[in-house]
């Protein structure tokens, strides 16, 4: 038999094409943000002409009283919306993860409704509603609107956590003489905590970043940070926007990083069995 | 304990569910209903609606009133709706072509790297859409990152006018929603049993055939889910057209927002919103069918 | 002129690199004859599946070469190698019918559809599944899927069929039935089978030859009987069946046999492979299967012992007997050969080790 009829040839590896493409993709995903951040440290007034490193736009932005007010407004709205929506979502999740009951499907559907409805529709519908009941527009109207669409975001991680939870633990608690409140306080709640924190983080991010709904239901003087950025963008590119945007970007990224770490940790733990 | 939970499980359920459900019901379901009702009322020129019943808003979608009150077909709004649909479809197709290879690449990485790459895909999704659109002005705009080097090399001597057109809007849409294409595709690729790929390779299929005959058919639910998500979100997108389209090239969302602000034609805005919701409902229905089917295949 | 279906020459396989490097295979040499039913047997992690994957082309060796009927396989993708695999979990394509699954390999090879249909029919007949062609894999039971996986791998008429623990997902009864079928199928098709398993009974009952593997090395390569009767080392003796290991000293040689002393007991042992290097007075390791030992009346055996435990297991009875402080032996006797009242724990008995029933291990 002929020895080695097939001369060994190095086969072309298409993984490398894939790798190159994927790296390009990540470049595409992050280059605009990188440009934004880099130019926020540019000394030049004309945003696109680099002269030298400077943090003066940050100083300028944060000594601007309008921006300060916008940040305070954003945080006020986000804190209230996060707390209320997380509380509501936790209560609902505790009910909805249990064995099937009548109304479960429709309840799940209602809770996920804000995810399905396009933001612009939510925005104008909420505006019409407040107009119909003659509710004055302002921070309160923004907070109410934010609570609504934060609920499903807070709900998702909490329910995921409950679904991964060993139900016999609660039975074990009862078996060891804990009453219902004690089971909830000593067993369910501590185990649910990472899910609740994760849910709260998502709700917070979503609220801080929201623009369209705030745009429609904000009254005079209720400007949040994204609304302020939008009004600045309409005047054109400026290094101040870069600085404020970078700050908002960093808030979101650190929150989502915290979320990631928490959910990864809990995943590791629940995957033990 | 000072007080106990109600004994009846039904009472308990409703106590737990009520805050969330009622909030969403009162501040979302009812508002949308009100908006639907508004679309059948005459417009108040100072914003809001007047009492009475009117089909004017719905007629306005297709017709314009001439001086003598006769109706003339006027496709300008339909054109905006059509542009929204076409831009949405293009953004969806581009996201699929760009995103599928990335999802395929991520799935082939070791677990730790995979988690990190997925995280990198999701980060932009959780950051402000406005900022992300704005960042593209720095790139596409006059004297932006693309034009500047071209001027420098002497390749162009006037602006390419990349901004404020369909191209810029499309770039913005893709950039905004491509994570939502990659994630469901990744999820279905991850579920794919790799030994099926090996089995196909073993049975004389080359790499491309494996993707075509094994990977794509088995990941179709994820692909369809990603496409629907990107399409539905693109259709309702407000920021890309208003920031990158410069407000001149309107999409459906801008048209709606315009009716509730400068134009002060709430009924017409309501009718347009109902139309958008209808399209989204159709998309969601497909999505649920696909994900239900996906779930059925698993066991 | 070689008739080896597969020759593995000095193959190494290492996963990872640096401090994390794990050696999966170390300097493997083996030859698999044409039309042979060859089994790679070993515990999980011994490298047997890795070797199979190297032959199939899913992994590349770091060192050494693999030849298929004398031809180098290096650089050939799995789809370019005329070998097919039956996967552990069958890996049937869930979106294709049974017929499409079986015909997939032929289709990829560009065979025309009439020919594919004929072959698919033949294959369905071969595995006695004629009526199932139009079903989907998830409509079949585990055993049926197993047969389809076999049919699919056989359809392109591979030169070698690789089977990666194909029965591991089946229940015991089905697994035993499949052994006969598979052996039959191998005879009918005349294709070389390379079978990977961790189940010694499976390996024993089907194979022409077995390579026992552990820690990335081939520990012994022989026919099933030889492996059982003449294990070369402690690992093989322990892994295949039950065994008593006895520390002994070689006292002298008598013809082919070695006379050894273990405490007060004299044992006439068969030499293992390395007997020529042994010298008198050397400490050696002996292996004796429990069923070779015999329990006698006290004083009639080679040594006296106390029964520590007596366990009834159906056909047989297991005894644990203490001969001296540091020598405890397991004895297995068929119940049909035992007296009416078998020895119970605490009884004093005699134990005999028939000449040639112990074998010298080389470690």
Description:
The complex is a heterotrimer of chains A (273), B (299) and C (363). With 273 residues, chain A is an all-alpha fold. In chain A, 74% of the residues lie in helices and 0% in strands. Chain A has a single domain (65-272), classed as MetI-like fold (Orthogonal Bundle), CATH 1.10.3720.10. Chain A is built from 11 helices and no strands. The radius of gyration of chain A is 25 Å and the shape is globular. Chain B has a domain at 77-126 and 164-298: MetI-like fold (Orthogonal Bundle). In chain B, helix 4 packs antiparallel against helix 7. Chain C has helices at residues 48-56, 98-108, 113-126, 142-154, 172-189, 200-206, 224-229, 234-239, and strands spanning 4-15, 22-33, 37-41, 63-68, 71-72, 83-86, 160-164, 192-197, 209-214, 217-222, 244-254, 257-262, 265-270, 283-288, 294-296, 303-312, 316-324, 327-334, 348-352, 358-361. Chain C is elongated, with a radius of gyration of 25 Å. Chain C has 2 domains: 4-234, P-loop containing nucleotide triphosphate hydrolases (Rossmann fold); 242-360, Nucleic acid-binding proteins (OB fold (Dihydrolipoamide Acetyltransferase, E2P)). Chain C is of the alpha+beta class. The model of chain C has no long low-confidence stretch (mean pLDDT 88). At the A-B interface, helix 1, helix 3, helix 4, helix 5 and helix 6 of A face helix 1, helix 3, helix 4, helix 5 and helix 9 of B.
Strand order in the sheet with the most strands of chain B: 1-2
Structural class of chain C: alpha+beta
Look at the helices and sheets of chain B and give the structural class: mainly alpha
- Amino-to-carboxy terminus distance of chain B: 45 Å
Approximate helicity band of chain B: over 70%
How many β strands of chain C by DSSP?
20
Number of helices of chain C: 8
Strand order of the largest sheet of chain C: 6-7-8-3-9-10
Provide the helix percentage of chain C.
10-25%
Average pLDDT over all residues of chain B: 83
What's the order of the H and E elements of chain C? EEEHEEEHHHEHEHEEHHEEEEEEEEEE
Q: Could you give me the name of the CATH homologous superfamily of the domain at 77-126 and 164-298 in chain B?
A: MetI-like
- The whole-number mean of residue pLDDT values of chain C reads 88
Work out the strand percent of chain C: 35-45%
Strand content of chain B: under 5%
């Amino acid at each position: 038999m002929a020895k080695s009829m097939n001369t060994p040839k190095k086969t072309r590896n298409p993984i490398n094409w894939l790798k190159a493409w994927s790296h390009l993709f990540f470049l595409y995903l992050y280059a605009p943000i990188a440009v934004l951040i880099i130019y926020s440290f540019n000394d030049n007034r004309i945003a696109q002409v680099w002269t030298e490193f400077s943090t003066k736009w940050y100083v300028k932005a944060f000594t601007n009283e309008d921006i300060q007010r916008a940040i305070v407004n954003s945080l006020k709205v986000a804190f209230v919306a996060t707390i209320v929506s997380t509380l509501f979502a936790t209560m609902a999740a505790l009910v909805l993860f249990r064995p099937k009951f009548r109304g479960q499907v429709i309840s799940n559907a209602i809770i996920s409704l804000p995810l399905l409805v396009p933001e612009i529709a939510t925005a104008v519908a909420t505006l019409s509603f407040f107009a119909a009941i003659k509710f004055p527009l302002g921070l309160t109207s923004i907070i109410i609107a934010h609570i609504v669409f934060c609920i499903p975001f807070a709900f998702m991680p909490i329910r995921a956590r409950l679904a991964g939870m060993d139900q016999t633990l609660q039975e074990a608690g009862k078996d060891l003489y804990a009453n219902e409140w004690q089971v909830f306080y000593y067993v369910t709640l501590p185990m649910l905590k990472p899910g609740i924190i994760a849910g709260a983080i998502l709700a917070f991010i979503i609220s801080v970043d929201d623009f369209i709904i705030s745009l429609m239901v904000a009254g005079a003087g209720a400007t949040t940070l994204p609304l302020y950025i939008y009004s600045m963008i309409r005047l054109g590119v400026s290094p101040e926007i870069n600085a404020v945007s970078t700050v908002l970007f960093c808030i979101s990224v650190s929150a989502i990083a915290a979320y990631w770490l928490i959910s990864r940790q809990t995943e590791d733990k629940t995957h033990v069995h | 304990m000072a007080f106990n939970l109600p004994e009846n499980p039904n009472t308990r359920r409703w106590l737990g569910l009520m805050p969330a459900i009622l909030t969403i019901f009162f501040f979302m379901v009812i508002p949308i209903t009100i908006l639907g009702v508004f679309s059948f009322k005459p417009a108040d020129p100072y914003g809001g609606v007047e009492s009475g019943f009117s089909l004017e808003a719905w007629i306005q979608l297709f017709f314009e009133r001439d001086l003598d009150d006769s109706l003339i077909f006027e496709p300008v709004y339909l054109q905006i709706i059509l542009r929204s649909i076409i831009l949405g479809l293009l953004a969806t197709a581009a996201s699929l072509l760009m995103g599928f290879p990335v999802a395929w690449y991520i799935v082939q990485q070791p677990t730790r790297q995979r988690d990190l790459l997925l995280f990198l895909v999701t980060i932009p999704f959780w950051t402000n859409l406005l900022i992300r659109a704005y960042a593209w002005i720095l790139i596409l705009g006059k004297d932006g990152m693309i034009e500047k080097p071209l001027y420098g090399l002497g390749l162009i001597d006037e602006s390419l006018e990349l901004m404020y057109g369909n191209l810029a809007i499309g770039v913005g849409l893709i950039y905004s929603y491509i994570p939502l294409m990659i994630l469901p595709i990744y999820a279905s690729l991850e579920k794919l049993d790799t030994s099926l790929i090996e089995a196909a390779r073993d049975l004389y299929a080359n790499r491309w055939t494996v993707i075509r005959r094994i990977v794509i058919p088995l990941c179709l639910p994820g692909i369809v889910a990603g496409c629907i998500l990107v399409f539905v979100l693109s259709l309702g997108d407000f920021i890309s057209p208003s920031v990158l389209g410069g407000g001149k090239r309107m999409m459906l969302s801008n048209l709606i927002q315009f009716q509730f602000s400068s134009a002060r034609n709430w009924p017409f805005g309501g009718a347009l919103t109902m139309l958008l919701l209808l399209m989204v409902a159709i998309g969601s229905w497909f999505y649920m069918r696909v994900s239900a089917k996906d779930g059925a295949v698993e066991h | 002129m070689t008739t080896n279906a597969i020759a593995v020459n000095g193959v190494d396989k290492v996963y990872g690199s640096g401090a994390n490097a794990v050696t999966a295979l170390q300097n493997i040499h083996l030859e698999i004859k044409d039309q042979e039913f060859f089994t790679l047997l070993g515990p999980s992690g011994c490298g047997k599946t890795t070797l199979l994957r190297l032959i199939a082309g899913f992994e590349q060796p770091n060192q050494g070469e693999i030849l298929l009927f004398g031809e180098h396989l290096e650089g050939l993708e799995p789809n370019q190698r005329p070998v097919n695999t039956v996967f552990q979990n069958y890996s049937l394509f869930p979106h294709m019918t049974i017929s499409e699954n079986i015909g997939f390999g032929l289709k990829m090879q560009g065979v025309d559809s009439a020919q594919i249909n004929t072959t698919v029919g033949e294959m369905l007949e071969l595995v006695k599944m004629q009526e199932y062609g139009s079903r989907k894999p998830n409509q079949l039971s585990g055993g049926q899927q197993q047969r389809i996986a076999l049919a699919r791998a056989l359809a392109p008429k591979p030169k070698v069929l690789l089977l990666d623990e194909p029965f591991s997902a089946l229940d015991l009864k089905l697994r035993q039935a499949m052994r006969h079928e598979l052996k039959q199928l191998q005879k009918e098709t005349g294709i070389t089978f390379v079978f990977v398993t961790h189940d010694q009974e499976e390996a024993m009952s089907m194979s022409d030859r077995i390579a026992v593997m552990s820690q990335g090395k081939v520990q012994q390569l022989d026919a099933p009987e030889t492996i059982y009767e003449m294990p070369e080392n402690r690992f093989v003796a322990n892994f295949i069946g039950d065994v008593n290991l006895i520390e002994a000293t070689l006292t002298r040689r008598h013809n082919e046999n070695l006379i050894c002393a273990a405490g007060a007991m004299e044992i006439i042992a068969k030499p293992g492979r390395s007997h020529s290097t042994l010298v008198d007075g050397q400490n050696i390791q002996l292996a004796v299967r429990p069923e070779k030992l015999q329990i006698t009346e006290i004083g009639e055996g080679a040594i006296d012992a106390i029964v520590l435990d007596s366990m009834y297991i159906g056909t047989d009875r297991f005894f644990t007997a203490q001969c001296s402080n540091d020598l405890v032996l397991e004895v297995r006797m068929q119940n049909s050969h035992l007296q009416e009242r078998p020895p119970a724990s605490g009884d004093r008995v005699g134990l005999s080790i028939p000449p040639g029933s112990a074998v010298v291990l080389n470690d």
